[in-house]
Amino acid sequence: MIVFNPKKKELKRDLAIVAMVQAAALLYGLHAVYIARPVYVVFSTDRFDLAFANDITDEKLAKVTNREYQSLPKFGPVVIAARRPDDTNARNELLFGSLSGGDDLPQMPQYYVPYTTQRADVLKQSQPLGLLKKFNQNELSIVDALVTKYTALKIDVAYLPLKGKACDLVVIVNRNSAEILEMVNLKPWY
Question: Where do the structural domains in the chain lie, given as residue ranges?
């Protein structure tokens, strides 16, 4: 509006410059969101973690042997699992690296495996929904609604934590198949 003056000779040029600057800012913002998007929901050991595109570098992708994980998904996070390395030295390197602030299992695509291969571990680590009441004293109605919903559907469910960067969520899984049913904004732990 500062630039707009109908009597000004350079009005079209000034408006074109303003439009180009705004378009460039929009494109930059979209690019920033794209490179920081969540690409995987990774089950590892006893919980789910979000893996983001900017956490998985080209150097990490170069170590991947499974073709399915050699490139990042373009749209939406894909549910997968990560299996700890069998080699003791690699396990120790992973452990000490993550303890010193380095990457943990969910950020290392060379250990990714299909989610279906880890279903037994998912079921073993899952917790009963009633336990959520202990961690969500102010959200008891949401927990009760979940219990009522899945009881009415005759689906036996449990939950696992999902560790995110900004907040942690709860992943509701079917206790018979380990199928992920939904993700809920509740605290999975204290």
Answer: 38-124, 126-189
Summarize the confidence of residues 55-74 as an average pLDDT.
91
Which amino acid is residue 32, in one-letter code?
A
173 touches 121 (CB < 8 A): no
Tokens standing for 58? Answer: 């080209």
pTM, whole model, 2 decimals?
A: 0.81
Q: How far is the C-alpha of 98 from the C-alpha of 74, rounded, in Å? A: 27
pLDDT digits (tens, 9 = 90+) for 123-171: 999 999 999 999 999 999 999 999 999 999 999 999 999 998 889 999 9
Count of Cβ atoms closer than 10 Å to residue 71 Cβ: 12
User: Are residues 76 and 115 in contact, defined by beta-carbon separation less than 8 angstroms?
Assistant: no
Q: Is 82 helix (H, G, I), strand (E, B) or coil?
A: strand
For residues 23 and 151, give the distance between their C-alpha atoms in angstroms, rounded to a whole number: 50
Residue 73 gets which letter from DSSP?
A: -
